[in-house]
Write a structure and sequence with these properties.
The complex is a heterodimer. Chain A is mainly α. In chain A, 52% of the residues lie in helices and 0% in strands. Chain A is globular and about 45 Å long. The longest helix of chain A is centred in the C-terminal third of the chain and has 16 residues. In chain A, helix 1 packs across helix 6 and helix 3 packs across helix 6. Chain A is built from eight helices and no strands. In chain B, 46% of the residues lie in helices and 10% in strands. In chain B, strand 7, helix 10 and strand 8 form a beta-alpha-beta unit. The two termini of chain B are 26 Å apart. Chain B is built from twelve helices and eight strands. Chain B has two domains: 118 residues, Up-down Bundle (Glutathione S-transferase Yfyf (Class Pi), Chain A, domain 2), CATH 1.20.1050.140; 133 residues, Rossmann fold. Classes of the chains: A mainly alpha, B alpha/beta. The interface between A and B is large, with 35 and 45 residues.
């Protein structure tokens, strides 16, 4: 079972975690570093250890901003944002969206200036 | 030359200014933005998963429509530009995505990334030319100290976006110079504004916008320009400096601002 989860993450992300040389540039670049329990450079180790359970329960999945700083700066093309996104996809596909963003929450969050782009992006990231 | 134009959801609603000033400025510069018929929302965030196909199809449809007319597709919103550019790259270079998307689409001729995707700023730099633009300026914005805010989506990943040097961009600074103003360079111009996290974590996003604003103000900027409605929204929470869409300043410099507002 665990093996399958790891394979799925590798397949969805297209990332080979063995290429990582643990330079930490991704975590140093990440604007959400302080908000993350598992840091971008640590994602690789969890995938290598087949510990997908921990990744699936990590709040980091919901903190990534898709800013692509780690993708840009990774000297080994491991690009941790892809692993984080694949883990997020796995959670959404397997557990559904009950933990994600609900349309019922939206009216209370709206303000006069809020662009549609924000809602569209948030739904794509937080709900399938 | 005319272009197929993909406005995106927000340019029809909260970011109308980004759209109307661009259309009017384009006319003043001698080209027309021809809106793609029945375009659909790009989804705002590029779907990174290698097996995510359906979420890429709205972009593929827009790209096919532009191919039909033999035109490059032009975007204004940073997010639309990012999604369309990357999906186009997938259609060109990633056989697994290309084949699956084409199987869904059922186009007579499969789409293989033929359409050129250009941001409006790239049209100004690469098609019009900043020197030609400078020659058409009627009201140079002399003395205005403007900080370029790039954010993430236009620049990264540089290898696919090909917009500018992702770590030390200068296209918006060159644009600011072309309209007669003074660009103010500051380190955080390509840092994230917080993006969609501001929906539920306003404080976290505001901290990020505050540091960008402070950095720009410390370097002497009196205002910022952006191409992204979400950056605009997040930066405005900081209230330190006024933020404008780059197209508004362009229309002003070309002397068509009032005409665009009419």
């Amino acid at each position: 079972m665990k093996k399958n989860q790891t394979e799925l993450i590798r397949e969805i992300s297209g990332v080979n975690p063995l290429k990582c040389m643990k330079c930490g540039k991704c975590s140093a670049s990440c604007p959400s570093y302080d908000e993350m329990d598992i840091k971008p450079h640590q994602f690789v180790s969890y995938v290598l250890r087949d510990d997908i359970e921990a990744l699936a329960n990590s709040k980091s999945l919901w903190k990534c901003l898709s800013c692509f700083a780690c993708v840009e700066r990774c000297p080994r093309n491991v690009e941790p944002a892809k692993l984080i996104d694949a883990a997020r996809q796995l959670v959404i596909r397997q557990r559904g969206t009950e933990e994600g963003l609900s349309p019922d929450e939206i009216p209370a969050l709206l303000d006069e200036d809020m662009p549609q782009q924000l809602l569209v992006s948030a739904f794509r990231r937080y709900r399938r | 030359m005319n272009y197929s134009y993909y406005p995106g959801c927000t340019l029809r609603t909260k970011a109308k200014a980004l759209d109307v000033y661009a259309r009017r400025s384009a006319e003043a510069l001698g080209f027309t933005l021809e809106e793609i018929e029945d375009w659909q929302c790009c989804g705002g965030v590029y779907p990174m998963g290698s097996d995510e196909i359906a979420t890429k199809l709205s972009s593929v449809r827009a790209l096919c429509a532009a191919r039909e007319k033999g035109q490059p597709v032009v975007t204004l919103c940073s997010a639309c530009h990012h999604v369309l550019k990357r999906v186009n790259d997938d259609m060109k270079n990633v056989p697994k995505i290309r084949d699956a998307a084409n199987a869904y689409m059922g186009e007579e001729v499969p789409y293989t990334g033929e359409t050129e995707v250009l941001h409006f700023l790239e049209v100004l730099r690469d098609k019009v030319g900043f020197d030609t633009l400078a020659g058409k300026v009627k009201n140079p914005l002399t003395g205005r100290k403007i900080g370029a805010y790039y954010g993430c989506l236009l620049l990264r990943p540089g290898q696919v976006m090909g917009f500018d040097d992702p770590e030390n961009p200068k296209i918006i600074e060159d644009f600011i110079r072309a309209i007669g103003a003074e660009p103010v360079t500051y380190g955080m111009r390509n840092e994230c504004c917080g993006g969609y996290i501001s929906l539920r974590e306003g404080e976290t996003a505001k901290k990020m916008s505050d540091s960008i604003m402070e950095n720009a103000a410390d370097q002497g900027a009196e205002m910022l320009v952006t191409a992204c409605p979400l950056c605009m929204y997040n930066l405005n929470k900081s209230e330190k400096l006024p933020v404008y869409y780059f197209t508004e300043l362009l229309a002003e410099a070309l002397g068509v601002k009032e005409a665009a507002e009419a």
